[in-house]
Amino acid sequence: VSQGKTKNNKRRQGKTSYRALKLKNQIKAKKLAKKTNDSNPRTYDLTLFSNNVHGITSKASTCADIFNKYVIDIACTQESFLTGGENPPPSLCNNKYSHIKDNRQTQLGGGVLSLYPKVWHSDVVKIASGSNAEFHAIKFNCFSPPLVLINYYGPQATRGQDHVLNSIREVMYEAQIHLVDSTIVLCGDFNLYIGDSILPGNDPKLSKAGTLFNSLIEEMGLTIMNYMNKDFVHTYVDHQHNTKRALDLIITNNPGAFNSVVIDTHSREGTPSFTPFSTRVTNNDQRKVYADHAAIIASITLPLKQSNSNRSEEHTSELQSPDHLV
After folding, report:
1. H helices of the chain, where?
2. 10 Å Cβ neighbour count for 234?
3. Is the N or C terminus of the chain more exposed, i.e. has fewer CB atoms within 10 Å?
4. C-alpha 7: how far from its chain's center?
């Protein structure tokens, strides 16, 4: 993966306002409108997986099985628990995927890890890593417009309110930069109380950080796609406080590209279908220990860049049709 230039931290933290970026984006939009596009572009049905796995190494085997069964193209995991230069287990990639990681260097926990098909390698660029936040942004140039995927692990409230607010500003600014000239998919574990006004069916509790987040979502014209799941929007269940919240989100500037969003059954409410688990053996008894956030799978149809159609089809030919998501 080629490394894009890391954005200047001061710039990402707000020297250029969102309103100033809006003006720049209006200019970009006019330039894009002048471009001649294929009236009948070739498309690709991409399947995206997102989950806070709470340790990728112990769940590598079940992740690999899930990725194979559900024909996952791009997998975004949070709390990989990889540190320093540590790579994910080879069994996870299985000679099929390349990966991009942002590990914590010393402190245990955290980290984000994204997998994508090896055959797309020459069209994939890592364009940013978070400073205050744990995220990375990846551009997929095999699509037209390009897909900018942001894999995000939001800090918990125990890190302090200022840290949480700065984290939100940083990751949302990264999304804002690419708002007009790319399809943006921002996914991950946001660890926010966003209430139910922006996402009907969610727990109504709204924090100060959630208020800031919601205002940026509305200002940027983004959509939280959890609403497409049938019956519920939550990904986390807390029996102790009797709450169910959407802590894990999939957000986009192009909701029309989404065919479906499926949120798995939480392990505290039933048996999950595609949430990773590790196996714990006690007294000769085996039991499954699931990630405590439900996984999400989304089906997205994107136009292929004309010069890259054949390369993407190399991957397409190996896949089944993800009929279970339609």
Report:
1. 9-10, 18-34, 60-69, 90-93, 161-177, 208-220, 309-316
2. 22
3. C
4. 20
CA angle 280, 278, 105 (to 5 degrees): 115
Residues 6+ apart with CB under 8 A from 152: 78, 112, 130, 133, 134, 135, 171, 186, 187, 188, 189, 190
DSSP character at residue 292: S
Give me the pLDDT at residue 29, please: 52
pLDDT digits (tens, 9 = 90+) for 89-115: 999 998 899 999 999 887 778 999 999
Task: Enter the tokens of residue 37.
Answer: 């596009």
The beta-strand segments (E) located in 31-182 are: 43-52, 74-78, 97-102, 112-117, 124-129, 134-140, 147-153
| Phi, then psi, of 302 in degrees rounded to 5 | -125, 140
pLDDT tens by residue, 40-56: 679 999 999 999 999 99
Identify whether the C-beta of residue 22 lies closer than 8 Å to the C-beta of residue 289.
no
- Nearest CA-CA partner of 195 in 137, 139, 243: 243
Amino acid at 191: N
Q: What are phi and psi of 16, to 5 degrees?
A: -100, 120
DSSP structure class, residue 158? G
Eight-state DSSP code of residue 12: I
Interval 133-157: pLDDT, tens: 699 999 999 999 999 999 999 998 8
pLDDT for 319 equals 34
Name the residue among 310, 281, 276 with its Cα closest to residue 119.
310
Lookup: tokens for 160: 């302090």
Which residues lie across from 78 on neighbouring strands?
Answer: 52, 112
Q: What is the mean pLDDT of residues 263-281?
A: 95
How would you classify the pairing of strands 124-129 and 258-263? unpaired
pLDDT tens, residue by residue, 207-228 = 999 999 999 999 999 999 999 9
Residue type, 128: A
Q: Per the structure block, which two tokens stand in for 199?
A: 């996402």
